[in-house]
Amino acid sequence: MQLQTLALVAAEVFGRALPVLLQALLLLAVLLAVSFMTTACAPVRSRSLVMLEFASFCVLSLTITLGLLFAAEEPISPVAGVRLGA
C-alpha cells in the first residue's frame, strides 16, 4: 500500500515539469505497473478484494486513456465529436 502511494506521489511530483499529455502517460504507466504488482503479489487474503482493486485500476486507466483523446493538440472533427458525445 505504501509503495503504491509512493509511486503515485513520485509520478505527481516529477511529472509537474512535463506537459499535460506526458503527465497523463506517466500516470497511466505508474497505474499499470502498480496494478500488475498488486495482482501478481496478491497482498490481501481475499481474492475478491484483489480482483476488485484490479477492476478499480482498470477503470482509472481507461478514464485516463479516454481523457487523452480530448487532450490532443488537434481539435476533434465535428463528426467525431458527435460520435463521442462531445
Explain what you see.
The protein is an all-alpha fold and 86 residues long. It has one domain (2-84). It has four helices and no strands. The chain has helices at 2-15, 20-41, 47-70, 78-84. The longest helix has 24 residues, at 47-70. The N and C termini lie far apart (37 Å).
SSE order and pairing:
Blueprint: H1 2-15, H2 20-41, H3 47-70, H4 78-84
Helix pairs in contact: 1-2, 2-3
The whole-angstrom Rg is 16 Å
N-to-C CA distance: 37 Å
What structural category do the secondary elements indicate?
Answer: mainly alpha
Can you write the helix and strand succession as a string? HHHH
* Low-confidence runs of at least 5 consecutive residues: none
Q: What is the quaternary state of this protein?
A: single chain
**What share of the residues lie within helices?**
over 70%
Number of strands: 0
> Looking at the structure, what is the overall shape?
flat
Strand content: under 5%
- What is the number of helical segments per DSSP (H or I, 4+ residues)? 4
Largest sheet: none
Could you give a short description of this structure?
The protein is mainly alpha-helical and 86 residues long. Helix content is 78%, strand content 0%.
Descriptive labels:
mainly alpha, 0% strand, single chain, 86 residues
